[in-house]
Amino acid sequence: MKQAEKAKTFGALHQKGNPVVLYNVWDAGTAKAVTEAGAKALATGSWSVAAAQGYGDGEKIPMEALVATTRQITAANDLPLSVDFEGGYSTDPLGAAANVEQLIDAGAIGINFEDQVVGGDGLHPVEKQAARIRAIREMADRRGIPFFINARTDLFLREGDLSKHAGLVEEALERGKAYAAAGADGFFVPWLIDEALIEKICAASPLPVNIMMRPGAPDVKTLAKLGVARVSYGPGPYRAMMEKLKEAAAAVYGTL
C-alpha cells in the first residue's frame, strides 16, 4: 500500500461511535506483536519510544533517533503508522513542518502534535499553535499525502485537579475549532476521563475526538457510546511490559 493510501485508510478509521483503537508501540518488534494481535493501525507513544532508548519524555530523545525508529517500524510493517511527535521539536511553524517532513520521508502517515510548551510553562497561544498546524498541513498537501494531524491540547493533562476539568471544556473546544480551521484532522484531549465532559466535547468538536486510556477512564465500549472516534493507550503498554519483565527477571535472580 502506498503512503498516501495508508494515510487515507488511517483517516477513515476514525469513526465517531466506532473508534479506532491504538495500542501504542515503541519499536519494530512491538509493532509486529501488536499487528499480529489484530491492530488495524499503529501509533507510537513519545514516552515509550524515549524510555526504550534510555531517554526521558519531553523531546529528550534526539530527533534523529525518533526518525530512525519510525523508519524501522515502517520498513518492517505495512500498517499505517502515526508518530507521537510531541511539540514538533521546533516552536517555529516552518521548522516544525520541516521536522514533520522527515517523519513523512521515514514512512509515517500521521502525528500527535501537542500545544503545551515543551520544556517550558503553559500552552502555546491558540494563534501560534494554529500557525504551526497550518504550516504542517501545507507541507503535507504539497507532498500529496492526506497526512493525519492529531491536534492535542494539554489543558486537561496539566490540570491535576479533576474537579476543575469542567471549567476547561469551553477553552478546549475553542482550541479544537481553531486547530480544525488550521488543517488538523483529529482532536486529542489526554487525561480527560469524565464521561459527561467527554460526551460534551465529542458533541461539539468539529474533529474526531481521541481519548487516552488511563486509570479511571471509561472502557472502550463506553467511550464509543460517548462519541469517541479514537482510543489510544499512551505509555501504558510500555509500563505494563516493563513490570512483567522485572517480575520475570526477579524470579530468576531470586533463585540464585
Automatic annotation (TrEMBL):
Pfam families: PEP_mutase. GO terms for molecular function: lyase activity. Gene3D superfamilies: Phosphoenolpyruvate-binding domains. InterPro entries: ICL/PEPM, Pyrv/PenolPyrv_kinase-like_dom, Pyrv_kinase-like_dom_sf. The keyword Nucleus does not apply. Keywords: Lyase. It comes from the Bacteria. This is 2-methylisocitrate lyase-like PEP mutase family enzyme.
